[in-house]
């Protein structure tokens, strides 16, 4: 499983959890609907989580957003993630090794440049949906390197 420190900034990035995001409002609505559907699961055991996951085909996104992405305490999370389960229940459903171009470039930079990019992100004071959309589109990287 690959990971970048950028995935944890700004309340967590959900840029990998979908594509062709329509708008910030539509993305928020989609996550809210997913969260409502998740709340209807009586048990949060592996079997129920897999039933939740498989209620829609992997490519059947909700306005560009993965139907498994939910919200808890203001942060985004995937209930299938191995950090929350004994197993990685995302396997076979999404590309668990995906890294956006920004995260790949960030990994190649030296510590000073990484720190400058982190400060740059913090200075933008983005909410987590805007941050995610701009990470995913590469627009933050483009602005930083301009
Ligand atoms: S879009 Fe990039 S920064 Fe965001 S979660 Fe994916 S890899 Fe991490």
Protein architecture, described:
This protein is mainly alpha-helical. It has one domain (11-145). It is built from six helices and two strands; from the N terminus they run ααββαααα. It has helices at residues 24-39, 46-53, 101-108, 111-124, 128-137, 139-145, and strands spanning 70-72, 75-77. Iron/sulfur cluster (SF4) binds at residues 4, 6-7, 13, 15-16, 99-100, 102-103, 132, 135-136.
Keyword list:
mainly alpha, 4% strand, globular, binds iron/sulfur cluster
Describe the SSE topology.
Blueprint: H1 24-39, H2 46-53, E1 70-72, E2 75-77, H3 101-108, H4 111-124, H5 128-137, H6 139-145
Antiparallel strand pairs: 1-2
The site of iron/sulfur cluster (SF4) has 13 residues, from helix 3 and helix 5.
Number of strands: 2
- Strand percent estimate: under 5%
How many distinct domains?
Answer: 1
The arrangement of helices and strands along the chain is HHEEHHHH
Bound molecules: iron/sulfur cluster
Given helix and strand content, the structural type is mainly alpha
**Contiguous runs where pLDDT drops below 50 for at least 5 residues:** none
